[in-house]
Amino acid sequence: MRFRHPDGSVVHLAYCTNVHPAETLDGVLAQLRDHCEPVRRRLGRDRLGIGLWLARDAAQALVTDPSALRGLRAELDRRGLEVVTLNGFPYEGFGAEEVKYRVYQPDWADPERLDHTTSLARVLAGLLPDDVTEGSISTLPLAWRTAYDDARAEKARAALLTLAERLDALEELTGRSIRVGLEPEPGCVVETTRDAITPLTAIGHDRVGICVDTCHLATSFEDPHTALDTLGVARVPIVKAQLSAALHAEHPRLPEVRAALAAFAEPRFLHQTRTTTPAGLAGTDDLDEALTGDALPDTAPWRAHFHVPLHADPAAPLTSTLPVLKSALTKLVGGPHPLTRHLEVETYTWQALPPELRPRVRAQLTDGIAAELTLARELLTDLGLKELP
Fold first, then answer.
1. What pLDDT is recorded for position 21?
2. Taking every annotated instance into account, which residue ranges of this chain make up the domain Xylose isomerase-like TIM barrel (predicted)?
3. What is the DSSP letter of 93?
4. SS3 of 42, please?
5. I want to staple 141 with a disulfide (CB 3.0 to 4.6 A). Which of 188, 252, 267, 384 is the partner?
6. What is the pLDDT, as a whole number, of residue 259?
7. Which CATH number belongs to the domain containing residue 143 in this structure?
8. How many whole angstroms separate alpha carbon 130 and alpha carbon 48?
9. In 238-277, which positions are buried (b, 16+ CB within 10 angstroms) versus exposed (e)?
10. Which residues, given as ranges, of the chain have pLDDT below 50?
């Protein structure tokens, strides 16, 4: 979906396909048929943006076979879909029964991460619509925090510099400008937007910036306007933004609140949980850990890294951090010029919701994704953007 900003530029809105992960190119093509095109039709749109997640094997198939890449581009066109952004965070296995810490491997100290991201950039350059010259890729925030020392930090910095050089060369070859954004996430080396400033300014290349995920922003209790202003002062480019909402518990000390939170503790994804204390941010690596004994102080609200559907608040006594998303979006695109032109709805946890909230059939998932995009569209038009055909 495309929107005209009051300054005349085009802002793109997509939804991320990691909600129905596929490891192979055949699986990606099935996604387009079974999920993406039905969402477009449900919205009554001639064209729908999607943020593709391409696992290692799918990306390799596309980058080594030009005919396969041309075939994917043709299939996108045939189904009324377009791609200006990729989710390059998960490497493989995102549909596994247990993902947890595996999603952070390989990290940016591992040559495989550089090679994979380079492949994604080459694929994206071939998928961009004819009238679009800029693409974006989100990636993990360097590494999970443990076992990350100075030597690994230097390897990561060198890898990102090499990536920037490769992206420069790719633009010279194709005329397409691809940028990559580190996506701050709780528990990682880069947990907050402020954590991103030092490594990104050390790289000092506008090909590599930040991807602002509003669920992660909220989970770490960052104020959106302060965070985005700080990035602006540091001249860190905002490559893309992911529109998502976290789980909020106002009174975690109450038994009924803990019982409600326990329903969201599940074995597939990591749900880092945070609270604020006089000494700063405190947290656990997962929600079930936070609910065990006194692992986390419970005198202030808790937020959990669980991407809840944008359009549907969880039942009381829980809420979502949708207000944080709205505040961030106002700052991102509500000013005289957009801070980023790539927005992506990313609720990948539909099948990890408590059983009574999960879509039971494909049509329910289609309805849910369409409802999220409808909400995002309304937020954008309320900010003065005009939807384009």
1. 87
2. 60-233
3. -
4. helix
5. 188
6. 97
7. 3.20.20.150
8. 15
9. bbbbbbbbbbbbeebeeeebbebbeebbbeebbbbbbbbe
10. none
